[in-house]
Amino acid sequence: MDPIREARPAARPSGESELMRRLAARDESALGELYDRWAPTLHALALRVLGDEAEAEEVLQEVFVHAWNHAGRYQPERSSVSTWLVLLARSRAIDRLRSRRSGERTVAASSLETPRHESAAGLSRVQDEERRRRVQAEMARLPPEQRRVLALAYYRGLSQSQIADSEGLPLGTVKTRTLLALRKLRQALGAEARELL
């Protein structure tokens, strides 16, 4: 038995909406209550996705920091608190997994290739080539209509209005396809996307 838990007064758990209201008001006891309710489930989920205890703990911390900082934005009509937290934990864990795999692929690829020049410029060229290959591979995974819009923008230098005119599409459709494609690339490329997109 935990003497600290035993010493606490027996409090009736708050309803989800009340708990989130208290959390949005920066009530630390609400954060503790949220943590007590959901930490084991979220930790198990992150551990199952990542297979690494330390990373699962980091995901758990990120989820509760996010909940603390964004409780006021929570919309009960969109999902329950449990669904919101589970989706957040799953998303964070998958992002970490993708980032880890991306780093592993980059390390593996760079160890297979021997740069022709050992200068900083030679290394930079090898890294640029690896990035270019990764971007092309991820572009190939996009739906054709999204890939086409990005290709016209990035490789031909067309504005969204020009793309809409040349493709006979509404401007809003071009903007939506561009946004969706960039989101997918950012998710797939992880931290590298900040440099490239």
Notes on the structure:
With 197 residues, the protein is mostly helical. It is 77% helix and 0% strand. It contains ten helices and no strands. It is flat. The protein starts with a helix and ends with a helix. Residues 1-14 have low confidence and may be disordered.
Summed up:
With 197 residues, the protein is mainly α.
- Please provide the ordered H/E string of secondary-structure elements: HHHHHHHHHH
Content of β-strand: under 5%
Helix content: over 70%
The low-pLDDT segments are: 1-14
Count of DSSP H/I helices: 10
Task: Give a quick account of the main beta sheet: strands, pairing sense, barrel closure.
Answer: none
**Shape by Cα distribution:** flat
Average of the residue pLDDT scores: 79
Set down the secondary structure blueprint:
Blueprint: H1 3-7, H2 16-24, H3 28-50, H4 53-70, H5 81-112, H6 120-141, H7 144-154, H8 160-167, H9 171-189, H10 192-196
